[in-house]
Design brief:
The chain has 423 residues and is of the alpha/beta class. Helix content is 43%, strand content 13%. The strands form three sheets. Strands 2-1-3-11-6-12 form a six-stranded mixed β-sheet, with helices on both faces. The chain has a four-stranded mixed β-sheet with strand order 8-9-7-10, with helices on both faces. The protein has a two-stranded antiparallel sheet with strand order 4-5. The two termini are 28 Å apart. It is found in: Periplasm.
């Protein structure tokens, strides 16, 4: 793991910032950003901060998969390594990593905690300790090809069954017309945290609950959950490619952005990338709340990322200053305008420049605000095992290795065992 970090820094040495004139208080700060892809704004912002403050900054890329990223962080922090000072952490990780993170209240500049969405600040406060500042928030969305819906006189589906029927009809018609690469629906089907978020949306929107309820009771084994998973499994090889069982966010985006899918489930960041000049779908797609099951309600899994400082940092105050900079209004506004990321500051949802660049941000404010959380708080440090059980059993059902009924029965047993050991 140390070798991975050292290699990452060396590979990105062109991004490491070494000011020509360093002050006596200059420090070397290493920040664990995203995966270094097109949507990773972290290196750019770190460069701006370093240039303004005269510090060395090393950029470390981390795995695209949140599951792999968490494993890396747990190894890093578990060894009390000083290799990384600032970490980008998922919304479900504060409780897991809190013991290894500083209380930002002790280091942040005055006013740095003002103006955030209160629920996100509450999420990042563990036993009275503020362990992270919110950077951007997410909720799952349905992307659709408006031009294809218009061509085939179809509306935006409000139920999962309607999505299935519409996707199948348009896929078949497009393939008969010569577009053999067209698929009806792409999503995140790989066995990782992203599949947990998808499964939660399918199941909760069918009225099947959230795997574990707010009291810590396992609720997954019910007819609505089986119905939701059975429908999702039926997509693979029909309206979804066989390979969807290995898709993460970027694989799904690649298919949709290339013009080869009617519908896609993904996060808000895809909007700006799909509307970029020269993309095959520019001006041809829209976004809407996700569908729901019969008698259910649309459900979007709450996502998002935050900035934290390692307790083993040699420069916690300087690292906290970088965190404050990254999450400040100006940087969040730039993040929203340039990448379509949903801010964690309510006032930016009414900002004219943000709304001009991405009108859907204002329209989806309620979706983001009402996103449903994964059962991370109630399951505490057991959450990685809970999520692993969910995505592995769901993946088995999608792959046809077990029936949806068998997958849910096995998941129920696994979660019950974890619950008996104590969340």
């Amino acid at each position: 793991m140390r070798q991975y970090l050292r290699t990452s820094v060396v590979l990105l040495s062109s991004i490491a910032l070494l000011p020509t004139a360093l002050s006596a208080t200059a420090a070397e700060i290493t920040i664990a950003c995203g995966d270094g892809g097109a949507a990773d704004f972290c290196p750019t912002l770190a460069k701006r901060w370093a240039e303004a403050n005269g510090h060395h900054v090393n950029i470390v890329t981390t795995p695209q998969s949140p599951t792999e990223k968490l494993s890396l962080y747990q190894q890093l922090l578990g060894s009390q390594s000083q290799d990384v000072d600032v970490l980008m952490i998922d919304i479900v990780w504060p409780g897991l990593l809190a013991d290894h993170l500083v209380d930002l209240n002790e280091y942040l500049p005055e006013g740095a905690t003002d103006g955030f969405i209160p629920s996100l600040m509450e999420n990042n406060t563990v036993q009275g300790k503020l362990v992270a500042l919110p950077w951007f928030t997410d909720a799952g969305l349905l992307y659709y090809r408006q031009d294809l819906l218009d061509k085939y006189d179809a509306g935006v589906p409000e139920t999962w069954q309607a999505l299935t029927d519409t996707a199948r009809r348009i896929q078949q018609a497009e393939r008969e017309a010569g577009n053999t690469r067209m698929h009806g629906f792409v999503f995140q089907g790989r066995a990782y945290e992203g599949l947990t978020t998808n499964a939660l949306e399918w199941i909760a929107s069918h009225g099947g609950g959230t795997f574990v309820d707010g009291d810590g009771q396992v609720t997954v084994n019910n007819p609505q959950t089986v119905e939701a998973l059975a429908l999702a499994a039926s997509w693979v090889g029909d309206i979804s490619p066989e390979g969807v069982s290995n898709y993460m966010e970027e694989e799904a985006r690649g298919v949709f952005q290339a013009g080869n899918a009617v519908f896609m489930r993904n996060w808000p960041y895809v909007w700006s990338l799909g509307q970029a000049d020269g993309t095959p779908i520019q001006g041809k797609f829209g976004v809407a709340p996700l569908p729901h099951g019969a008698g259910g309600q649309s459900t979007a899994t709450l996502g998002g990322w935050n900035w934290a400082v390692s307790r083993y940092s040699q420069h916690p105050e300087i690292a906290a200053d970088l965190v404050a900079y990254l999450s400040a209004e100006e940087q969040q506004k730039a993040h929203a305008v340039e990448f379509g990321r949903n801010p964690t500051r309510p006032m930016l949802y009414e900002d004219a420049e943000v709304l001009e660049a991405h009108p859907f941000i204002g329209e989806l404010y309620e979706t983001v605000m009402n996103g449903i959380p994964r059962p991370a708080s109630v399951t505490g440090t057991a959450y990685p095992r809970v999520s692993s059980a969910v995505f592995n059993r769901v993946h088995e059902a999608l792959s046809g290795d077990v029936s949806p009924e068998q997958a849910i029965q096995q998941l129920d047993s696994e979660l019950a065992r974890l619950g008996r050991r104590g969340w």
